[in-house]
Each structure stands twice: as structure tokens, then as C-alpha cells.
Design a protein that fits this description.
Blueprint lengths: L2 E9 L3 H19 L2 E7 L3 H7 L5 H6 L5 E6 L9 H13 L4 E7 L17 E7 L10 E3 L7 E3 L6 H16 L5 E6 L8 H11 L6 E6 H10 L6 E4 L1 H14 L7 E5 L5 E5 L16 H13 L3 H16 L13 H11 L1
Helix pairs in contact: 1-9, 1-10, 1-11, 5-6, 7-8, 9-10, 10-11
The chain binds 3-isopropylmalic acid and manganese (II) ion (MN).
Length: 348
């Protein structure tokens, strides 16, 4: 029997509650499909930092290299300075483990979950490939004369050819695996000229993938297009910051933050799976947060671990509960966190 070693970081806010349900589903899949689980729970997050001043100890971080995958709940808590724990945990995981792909699928299962008038599942089925290791995210902020009227603040947007090439190549390969084979590049190279690197590398790689039909949108127009004609987007590739922004928009198209999941991948190496949503501190401990985003992240993790049957069983269970109305709505509080978890487990 194959055993998968998984580090579990439940994190802040609703993280522990939604991760608990994700793990119930994972264990149910393991029982049903006959694989083993070696779960290593790690306590890092704001609570741990408040108690110990430790964000992510180096030894624990190094031990992640021996894992097959990482499941993350959510990070962020108003009791810590803005960005400290986010950058120290999510940021460090992405950058120091070189998780260079942030894969965010957006798939609408039923028109009733979509806030757009007259749009259904045929219109909304896309994959956003977000670069995950460069851009303003990894640059040092600099402040001059802080707190005065002479203040100057800056944080560069930095792109390398290597970082750009690998993410665009990955997006072309992703497009090749889909029936439409269509790839849109989203950048803002008309204003941020440094992003012409994306435009140039994209044009160059397109020659290696003649079967893929390509398109190009500036990020402002991409926002408009995702609302007006989402069916025109199949796979899209974009920079780290723009990918962050448009995937929240995309999450709303498929029913909201309650269902949106993502994979932070370093292909072939330890990779991380998480919801797109944040820690939602106002809902923490109330058993009202929707665990489906984490459960969908578990499905992506199973697929990555080679447990394809288990992955489709989890995906299928979620889809059937949403389609046959057993999950009435994706609004917060429509069902309790534990109730949704239990429904998915019994469906599997
Ligand atoms: C996300 C989150 C993070 C990001 C935050 C928590 C730093 O919004 O995963 O989308 O900006 O990448
Ligand atoms: Mn985000």
C-alpha cells in the first residue's frame, strides 16, 4: 500500500475548521481507495506566533522537503502586523520551496451559483495559471521619510526570463491538455513596459505549440472580458499580482470563495494545496465557513499524488451535492462547516 506523507498547516481564522473537514474527506478517500496517510500537523500561524514569537522555524521548514504534499488552511489574523505572517508562511512556502505555478481552476457547475445573468456551465470553465515566485510580491518595500509629507514608498515589479519562460511554457502545456487548446496571455505591457518580457516570451513559445490558439488581453480588459464573455477564456497565464486579483474575480464567477481551490506547484517536487479564500477571522470558531474550497484543494492534491480515482471521487461527490440541491446554497451559514464535510464523506 502506498502511503502519502502530507504536512498539514491549518493556520489562522477558519483554517482549522475547514482543514478538519478536508482531512475527514482525505481519510474517507484513503479508506475507500486503499492508500495510506502519514499526516504531519504543523502548528504555525498567528496563534503560534503570539504564544512563541516563532513564525516558521527553519528545522520544520526543512522537513517539508521530505513530504509529498502540503495542505494549507488559511493565514491572516488582525492581531499580527499586516503581512508578517502571510509573508512568513505563505510567502516563504511559495518562494523558498520554489512553488512556481499557482494553478487556479474556475469551473461553474450550475447557473444558480453564478452572479452573472444568463451565464451557465458552458460559459465558465477556465484555468488561470498564475506565476507564483516573482513580481512585486518578492521585492523589498522601501520607504524614505516615512510618516512625513515627503514620504516616498516603492516596491519594484521584477520578472526574469527564466521565471517567465517556465510559467508560460507550463500554461501552453496545460492548454494542450484541454479540448479547446486556447491560451490567453494577460499582462499590462502597454503601461508596465517591463511586462513586455511576457509578451515576447509568449510569442516565442507560441511557435513551439502550433496547435494552441492564442490571444492577448491587458489585465483591465481581461476583467471586463471575464464578466462580459467568460466563455472566450479557456486557459490564461499571467503575472503573480494580476493572477491574485483576477482569481478572486474568477472565484465569484463559479460561486464564490466558498468553493475556489488552488495548487501551488513545483512540478515533480513537494507542492502545496489551499483554498483561494483567506482566514475570514469574523467567522472563526462558529462552524459556518464553507469547507468546499479546502475539499476541492484536497481533490487537486490527490490528483497530484497520483490518486486519480480518489481525486475524481472527491470532485464528483462535491459536484453531485451541488447539482442535486443537497447543498442548497454557497452563502455563508446555509450549512454548517461540519455538515458539508459529513455530506461529502458519506457521498464518497
Ligand atoms: C492568495 C492570497 C495571498 C496572495 C495573500 C494571503 C498574501 O490572497 O493566495 O491569493 O496575495 O497571494
Ligand atoms: Mn488572493
Amino acid at each position: 500500500m502506498k502511503t502519502h506523507r502530507i504536512a498539514v498547516l491549518a493556520g489562522d481564522g477558519i483554517g482549522p475548521e475547514v482543514v478538519a473537514q478536508g482531512l475527514e474527506v482525505l481519510r474517507a478517500a484513503a479508506r475507500k481507495f486503499g492508500f495510506g496517510l502519514d499526516l504531519v500537523e504543523m502548528p504555525y500561524g498567528t496563534e503560534h506566533w503570539l504564544a512563541t514569537e516563532e513564525i516558521f522555524p527553519d528545522q520544520a521548514f526543512a522537513s517539508l522537503q521530505e513530504m509529498d504534499a502540503i495542505l494549507l488552511g488559511a493565514i491572516g489574523d488582525p492581531r499580527a502586523p499586516v503581512g508578517l505572517i502571510e509573508r512568513g508562511i505563505i510567502g516563504r512556502l511559495r518562494w523558498d520551496l520554489d512553488l512556481w505555478v499557482n494553478l487556479r481552476p474556475i469551473k461553474l457547475l450550475d447557473a444558480k451559483f453564478c452572479p452573472l445573468k444568463g451565464k451557465g456551465p458552458a460559459d465558465i470553465d477556465m484555468v488561470i495559471v498564475r506565476e507564483n515566485t516573482e513580481d512585486a510580491y518578492v521585492q523589498k518595500p522601501e520607504f524614505l521619510h516615512q510618516g512625513t509629507e515627503q514620504e516616498v514608498a516603492q516596491q519594484a515589479m521584477l520578472y526574469t526570463w527564466k521565471g517567465t519562460e517556465r510559467i508560460i511554457r507550463y500554461a501552453f502545456e496545460t492548454a494542450m491538455q484541454r479540448p479547446r487548446k486556447h491560451l490567453t496571455l494577460i499582462d499590462k505591457a502597454n503601461a508596465v513596459r517591463a511586462q513586455s518580457l511576457y509578451t515576447r516570451v509568449f510569442a516565442q513559445l507560441a511557435e513551439d505549440f502550433p496547435e494552441v490558439e492564442t490571444a492577448h488581453l491587458y489585465v483591465d480588459a481581461a476583467c471586463m472580458r471575464m464578466i462580459e464573455d467568460p466563455a472566450s477564456i479557456d486557459v490564461a497565464v499571467t503575472t503573480n499580482l494580476f493572477g491574485d486579483i483576477i482569481t478572486d474575480l474568477g472565484a465569484m464567477l463559479q460561486g464564490g470563495m466558498g468553493v475556489a481551490a488552488s495548487a501551488n506547484l513545483r512540478p515533480g517536487k513537494v507542492s502545496l494545496f489551499e483554498s483561494v479564500h483567506g482566514s475570514f477571522p469574523q467567522a472563526a470558531g462558529k462552524n459556518i465557513a464553507n469547507p468546499l474550497a479546502t475539499i476541492n484543494a484536497v481533490a487537486m492534491m490527490l490528483d497530484f499524488l497520483g490518486e486519480r480515482e480518489a481525486a475524481s471521487a472527491v470532485e464528483g461527490a462535491v459536484a453531485s451535492l451541488l447539482l442535486d440541491g443537497r447543498i442548497r446554497s454557497l452563502e455563508v451559514g446555509a450549512h454548517s462547516t461540519t455538515e458539508i464535510g459529513a455530506m461529502v464523506v458519506s457521498t464518497i
